[in-house]
Amino acid sequence: MLTIGSIEVEAPFVQAAMAGYSDRPMRRLARRYGAILTISEANLDRLIIQPGRKRGRLLHVPEDDHPVFAQLIGADPDEVARAAVAMTDAGFDAIDINFGCPVRKILGRRRGGFLLSQPDAALAIVRGVFTAVGSTHPVTVKMRRGTDNSPEAAGKVFRILDGVFEIGVSAVTMHPRTVKQRYVGPSDWSFLARVKEHVGDRVILGSGDLFSADACLRMLRETGIDGVTIARGCIGNPWIFEECLALSRGDPLPPPPSIGRQREAIRGHWSDLLDEYGEDMAAKIMRKFGIKYSEHHPMARPVRDAFIAARRPRDIEQILDRWYDPDADWPPVKRRERHGDLIAAGAQP
Fold it and tell me: Is 216 one of the catalytic residues?
């Protein structure tokens, strides 16, 4: 079980917030394959509080999209708080505040990971959001282990960590890379253990290098944290959630997804993208997901090339017909743990 404020779910495996990825179609896909709790893509506070084309889509929460947290990113406490009210009024179940984004554009505007260098400003944002919605909805925070590797940066992180729990947040997600690292190099799981030991019974979720179900279970065992948020490891790989559930029950790891199961997932995702965005935008979005889906195909390189070349809806349909025919004589599907690394079909990673 995983309990975050008033929200209780049956398993500690969460689809993470990912800018440009964790929209409604991706969250729906993750739920089909075992994700119970999902988090929206990072939403800039001003897109939520100001009129615009995107606002209506970002504030739409269908009945089948629960429980779902809305992640917010911003620099002004009042604006982030107003956005939090708008998102909880729209139906989001909790608010997650992003202090972890390492993208240069975000840092340059004093948002995301930049705020780890400014504890007073970060805590002011959390206090504003908690005052606005904390009495009715859980508030959580996403962080990294510092702006860099210096003791000073780590000290600021622990000051923010202690401060947000004093304010009343329900959980903190910690990515154990620095902002300076971005996504380069291994994440320091020992830092997660240090954080969990520091906060005791308070809820800590971890992320970083979770590209397989085995890695998710190992992070829980080795660090003592309460849950994991799966980010890049579930892009084009929704089956990771059902694999995590199987291992957590003590069951064998399910076999890698057959061509038929891959087609089923891609077809469902494609249909939801068409409903959400229309044909032109759906094809563009499907292309970037398709590159990741292709890693599971035994003919990964030509399938990847086909997705890269896709520009129109009929291109996606042709890929499904040509490369995902479940009755064709394909080589055995092999499990890919991360970044193209192959594991023998059916083997434990």
Answer: no
Whether 118 and 225 map to the same domain: the answer is yes
The answer to the question of residue 29 being in a domain is: yes
- SS3 category, 250: coil
Question: Are residues 222 and 111 part of one domain?
Answer: yes
pTM of the model: 0.93
Task: Give the CA angle between residues 35, 47, 142 to the nearest 5°.
Answer: 45
Same-domain check for residues 39 and 103:
yes
User: What total of structural domains would you count in the chain?
Assistant: 2
Condensed to tens digits (0 to 9), the pLDDT of residues 138-173 reads 999 999 999 999 999 999 999 999 999 999 999 999
Paired sense of beta strands 68-73 and 43-44, if any: parallel
State the Cα–Cα distance between residues 349 and 331, nearest whole angstrom.
20
Name residue, tokens 């615009």.
52
Tell me which residue range forms the domain holding 225. 2-248
276 lies in the same domain as 171: no
The reply to whether 236 and 271 lie within a common domain is: no
Residue 77 to residue 312: CA distance in whole angstroms: 42
**Using the 8-state DSSP alphabet, how is residue 194 labeled?**
H
Q: How far is CA 275 from CA 31, 269, 272, 281, in A?
A: 17, 10, 5, 11
Cα 24 to Cα 30: distance, rounded to the nearest angstrom: 10
Spatial neighbors of 117 by CB under 8 A, at least 6 apart, are 147, 153, 156
Which residue among the candidates 101, 216, 234, 244 is catalytic per the annotation?
101
Asked if 14 and 119 sit in the same domain, the reply is yes
Each residue of 269-305: pLDDT tens digit? 999 999 999 999 999 999 999 999 999 999 999 999 9
217 and 298, same structural domain? no
